[in-house]
Specification:
This protein is mainly α and 86 residues long. The chain is built from four helices and no strands. It has helices spanning 2-9, 17-38, 42-46, 51-80. The longest helix has 30 residues, at 51-80. It is flat. Residues 1-39 form the Ammonium transporter AmtB-like domain.
Length: 86
């Protein structure tokens, strides 16, 4: 998945199959290493929060993000449906 995202961000570049394999390999390695060594939250590591509380906060963040996206989409949709003629 990380390789597809990396190749997609360079969509305007001409990548050969070998270049695509290298980009995918490097993106995959960076993704795995980042998950392994950079995904520990400081409060969880220090014992201030437990993992279930951190998971609940992340689930709430996803809900808030989806709510903002839906609300923004509805507002833009209603604005675009207004009968304004230029």
């Amino acid at each position: 998945l990380a390789g597809g995202v990396a190749a997609g961000t360079a969509g305007e570049m001409m990548l050969t199959p070998f270049g695509s394999m290298i980009v995918g390999f490097l993106a995959g390695i960076i993704s795995v290493l980042g998950f392994k060594y950079l995904s520990v939250f400081p409060d969880v590591a220090d014992g201030v929060r437990d993992t279930s509380y951190q998971g609940a906060m992340q689930a709430a963040s996803i809900a808030v993000t989806l709510g903002i996206a839906l609300f923004g989409g509805l507002v833009v949709g209603f604005i675009l449906k207004l009968p304004i003629r230029f």
